[in-house]
Structure formats: C-alpha cells, structure tokens
Amino acid sequence: MTRPSPAEALRPRGDRPLRVVAVHAHPDDETLATGVALAHHVARGDTVHVITATLGEEGEVIPAELAHLEGSPELGAHRRGELDRAMAELGVEHSYLAVGASRTTTPRWRDSGMAGSQAAEHPRAFAGAPVAEAADLLAERLGILLPDLVLTYDAHGGYGHPDHIQTHRVTVAAVASLPERLRPRLFAAFTPRSWVLEDRDWLAEHVPAGAGLTVPDGDDPFAPSVVDDARVTHEVVDLDAVAHQVRALRRHATQVSVFEVPDGPYFALSNGIAARLAGREGYAELDPGTGLPIG
C-alpha cells in the first residue's frame, strides 16, 4: 500500500521550498517520532524548524558514565546540548516554546515526568500549563515561521506521556487559532499495525540473543499510536534519511542506544525494548477544530 506524503496533500505551490514545523515535548522526541520526515524535507531543500516544549529534565539516563545526571539539575542543560547537536546533524532550525528572546535557550515550562510522579506537581510542569497560554505562545511562533505543514503527536501522545498529550492539545489549539489564510496543514504521527508486525519479525531475526534487549513479539501490546493500516492516510518513506536519523539519535546519548547490523539500524530507550529504524513514518491529517483525524 502506497500513501501520499503530507507534502502531497498541499495545493500546488510552484517550485518554492516548503516550510515545515515539528512540535515536540522533549529533546529526542523530534528524531524518534518525525526524524525521517525532518531529514527528508531538508534533503528536498525545504525549511524545517523544530519547536521543543521542555528540556526533558525528568528523563532516565542510560549510559553508566552519565548516570549522575539523572534527577539532577544538570540533566536539562546536558540534554539541551544533546538537542543542539542532533539538530545540527539533521540540518534543521530549532527553538523552544518560550517567551520572547528566551525561546532559543529557556523553555517556559519544564518536563512533567510520567503521570503521578512528583515532577507532575511542579508549578512549571508542562502537562499542567494552561492550554490557552501555551497555544498563544506557539501560535505567535507559527505566525512568524508561517509553515505549510505542522507535524506533532496524536491525541494519545504516541505512547501516553502527559507532556506528549499536552503538546498535541497545544498544537491543535495554536493551529486552530491562526487566521485561515495563515493556517498550515496539521499532521499527527501514526504507525500502521502491519509495519509494526513486520518490524517485530525483522528484530527477531537481527537482534542478537545476548544483547540484553527485549524484542516484542506479535502478541505484545501496541502503543496507542499504532492503528489499523487504513487509518494512516499519509507516509514519508525515505531510506536515505535513516543515516541522518541515526547520527541525530546518537547525539541523544542519555536517552537512546543505537545499534547497527548489516541489514539496518535499531535502537532502544531506557526500557531496553528494541525498535527498528526502517526509514518510514506514517501520518494522518488532523482537523484543527477537533484534533481528530480527517476522514
């Protein structure tokens, strides 16, 4: 099954480069969830900009040599540096969801951690921010960047993280608030169930038994963003983008472990669950008025 790309959903715009904005919750989300699309659009000559809501202060740290950062005040600053280097690898512009001149260095809100955590009670926790206030900040940035396309999470935030869900809400509200003549097309990342099953088979064949990683099988639960194939209406498939995505993920060393075999790369987060980097991402267009997929 071949689907059009989000760019192909646009009205004909001549030969001018597109403007693409991806809105994410924490450093590394941009490369994990939309890295193929970001690298693909850069290679097309489009202008690509990532907006990040927090510094990821509550992230779990994988490498033993960096374990002292977990839970410390220094983790956010370290992840800011990781994100800077990852954005350079992808060749994209970047800013934070922040006020005025601070947007390049200091987000307005901080990582909320998982639901029920102590971090969620912090007065600056992003998940607890007034949606209207955050949407106004984002709408201001979108009014300057004037994107043709905006990419973000589905209503479940991909896998249910409160900051991802909040990012979806804020992005939908921001796009909806723009004048219709400036309103970009809004897409959320979804994954066809058939892709996940194919990737699990691939991982079972390629991840060494002694790697210390968990390889999900066909009976394991799916993330909320994994949906029936028919619900995924658009896709970006670009094997050439994978090398850029891998280099960017390696810059997020506190959060992501990347592995390569002759047939391709895969990665794992702190949960030790292997996931394939297959050079493909699924999307569905969202109605800014409802936040729900169109069609």
Automatic annotation (TrEMBL):
<protein>
    <submittedName>
        <fullName>PIG-L family deacetylase</fullName>
    </submittedName>
</protein>
<dbReference type="Pfam" id="PF02585">
    <property type="entry name" value="PIG-L"/>
</dbReference>
<keyword id="KW-0862">Zinc</keyword>
<dbReference type="InterPro" id="IPR024078">
    <property type="entry name" value="LmbE-like_dom_sf"/>
</dbReference>
<dbReference type="InterPro" id="IPR003737">
    <property type="entry name" value="GlcNAc_PI_deacetylase-related"/>
</dbReference>
